[in-house]
């Protein structure tokens, strides 16, 4: 996992969009925004995921393949939907099984931080954080999605600042 400030240029969202010079963002800075990260080892990946599920009360899981082949004719529309700035009223938890992509989050200063993920990464975005997702130029990512309850993926596009989950998120990160 690599994280850095996003350059905000209006070009293909699948490009790296790294400032020059780069402004890295540490795991500690991500944690200050409520983002959690684990690097899982290949030899016991499933056991590590199961342990995190027990510790964090994730009771359901499924898999998604984000690719032209996996999504068919809906591919370009899905990429646009994933890349629209939004939040969820639940955590967004992804264990990356194969491929690469980007999660962009808004940090405490409302700047875009780009997080590059690859196979072996597990990332948790807290409920209420503004974020978005895109593939990189490889156009392929396979992920395990983890859920506390039944699998639900309901994006609430910005602005939804009065949403109670957004308000709770802001309160939590202001205390950090």
TrEMBL record:
Annotated cofactor note: Binds either 1 Fe or Ni cation per monomer. Iron-binding promotes an acireductone dioxygenase reaction producing 2-keto-4-methylthiobutyrate, while nickel-binding promotes an acireductone dioxygenase reaction producing 3-(methylsulfanyl)propanoate.
Keyword Amino-acid biosynthesis among record annotations: yes
Residues holding Ni(2+): 86, 88, 92, 131
Cell compartment(s), UniProt: Cytoplasm; Nucleus
Gene: ADI1
HAMAP family, A to Z: Salvage_MtnD_euk
Principal location: cytoplasm
Keywords of this entry: Amino-acid biosynthesis, Cytoplasm, Dioxygenase, Iron, Metal-binding, Methionine biosynthesis, Nickel, Nucleus, Oxidoreductase
Family per record: Belongs to the acireductone dioxygenase (ARD) family.
Catalytic reactions of this protein: 1,2-dihydroxy-5-(methylsulfanyl)pent-1-en-3-one + O2 = 3-(methylsulfanyl)propanoate + CO + formate + 2 H(+); 1,2-dihydroxy-5-(methylsulfanyl)pent-1-en-3-one + O2 = 4-methylsulfanyl-2-oxobutanoate + formate + 2 H(+)
Signal peptide: none
Pathway: Amino-acid biosynthesis; L-methionine biosynthesis via salvage pathway; L-methionine from S-methyl-5-thio-alpha-D-ribose 1-phosphate: step 5/6
Superkingdom as given in the UniProt entry: Eukaryota
Regions crossing the membrane: none
Pfam families: ARD
First-tier enzyme category under EC: oxidoreductase
Purpose: Catalyzes 2 different reactions between oxygen and the acireductone 1,2-dihydroxy-3-keto-5-methylthiopentene (DHK-MTPene) depending upon the metal bound in the active site. Fe-containing acireductone dioxygenase (Fe-ARD) produces formate and 2-keto-4-methylthiobutyrate (KMTB), the alpha-ketoacid precursor of methionine in the methionine recycle pathway. Ni-containing acireductone dioxygenase (Ni-ARD) produces methylthiopropionate, carbon monoxide and formate, and does not lie on the methionine recycle pathway.
Names of the cofactor(s): Fe(2+); Ni(2+)
Oxidoreductase among keywords: yes
Residues bound to Fe(2+): 86, 88, 92, 131
Protein name (database record): Acireductone dioxygenase
EC number: 1.13.11.54, 1.13.11.53
